[in-house]
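DM from R.C. (forwarded with permission)

"hey, sorry to bug you on a friday — could you get me a structure for this? deadline for the figure draft is monday and I only need the backbone to look sensible"
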Amino acid sequence: MVHDPSPRTDDEVLAATDIEALLRHGLSRDTFRTALFGDGAIAAAVTLDRLGVLPRSVRYIAKIVRAGGLTYAAGPAEPLPSGAASAYLRDWLETAAQVAGTPDDEARAARWLDTVAELIGLRRGSRAATDRAGSQQWGA
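My reply, with the result:
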């Protein structure tokens, strides 16, 4: 057995998750839905949070999906404030649009985006609370 001197963090493992595959299978198949809304949503939140995306930006995209559909939401050149984050999101939206065969699938994708936004918010809130606690502990 080989010991890895620099094990990956949970965030690194999640960031390596194939979100497109989870979208392909999770939007249309009940058996993959838990993985999409679990690991897939967490992985997407980790990815976008690392790129500085705010939860409200992802919620806005979810509203666009509800109003115009996945293909329409994937259309803008930069749906999010940064180019890197936009590229990830556009890939996810395009993948979802290819497999969404019903309005329920599109609604499910919008709910997934809302879940991603909520998780980004929780990550940010947790970091802020940790920072405040650390500042109070050290008298800053």
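R.C.: lifesaver. The chain is about 75% helix and 0% strand.
me: no worries. Residues 103-137 form the longest helix (35 residues).
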